Task: structure prediction
Amino acid sequence: SSISVQVTMAFTLSALRQPAHLARSLSTTATALAPKKTCLHDLHKAHKGKLVEFAGYDMPVQYADLSIKDSTIHTRNGVSIFDVSHMLQTHIKGADRVAFMESLCTADIEGMAANTGSLSVFTNDRGGIEDDLIVSKTDKDFLYLVTNAGCIDKDLPYLQSNAAAWRAKGKDVNIETLDGRGLVAVQGPGMAAVLQEGTDIDLSQLYFMNTVVGTVFGIENCRVTRCGYTGEDGVEISVDPKQAAALVERLLASKKSSVKLAGLGARDALRLEAGLCLYGNDIDDKTTPAEAGLAFTIAKRRRQTLGFPGAEKIVEQLTKKSWNKQRVGLIAEPGRAPRGHAPIVHPLNKASVGYVTSGCPSPCLGKNIAIAYVDKIDSKAGTKLLVDFGQKETGVTVTKMPFVPTKYYVKKN
Result:
């Protein structure tokens, strides 16, 4: 693996006209060498994408035809295509693959139906979150994982070293990375109409967090997973890197909806509006699932069987409701948008009660929004607080998330 160094992301709205924190794949780790290129790099350049170095890759932050604001709004009304090929795709193989993964993350993989998946978290012995991931239980002889590009330098060695330890004890588990494979996110209300005309997969039966392999626009062996990072209905398509550009061009040519390329700027605004966490900003190795509002990632069976790092502390927090800070949404008064690390104070005594982790102007709401951690006593929706910008303070109101209602394609009982 490449030599990595800790760096601070310096993107700001004033400098690059983009949000400060850009996508699920962002963390504070990036490569010290020249940025890598995804299999869609030439396509981005051909479509006049504005490329920036991001999680060790050259990635498009936006395209010439749409501003970040307009691209965000377009996603909620049409279809946007995002290159997420920099994410780490992995197959976990072997007879002991389920038990192995359950020893590292919080998902009830044993209880999953075939070809379904779940958002989960890798935890540490302190109960903190080492990374978030999507783990899917396929009907083949492997689990399919998608983890953050910015955390590859710690996630992959972690998986490999633990697998080696299991094999040393006579267990059957192997890690296979899908190096270079394309991953394309197709997001928005028109997704199903656009994709259905080009695939043999029945999308009406592919529900949120379901995954299946099929042919897409003549390209065989595409894994289509109904998920995304925008709050909209969408899929992520894992595709042969040599066919990825052709797939995107076919999607762009569709007449079933307005389809456009979108970059990391819109992706960040969309995920913030959907109230979704960004690793390295809204969650980290010191944040527990309870504090982060991610208790749902601790499956019911796993709360009983335990067996993942920090399980006792995490379950004790959930059982006794014994945590002190809480992730919340904030809607700010008109003016300056709250940004990461900005202090939050109480309006009466100006005592510190928390801090902002992500924030931006919401293109779809026309308001400034933020994700923050505040003292649990101040986390009730409707609570009035202040963001301290140093020379000036701005009023904020604690609100439930998502800010924009999600539209996932969920099976109705």
Summary: The longest strand covers residues 352-362. The longest helix spans residues 152-168. DSSP finds ten helices and 22 strands in the chain.
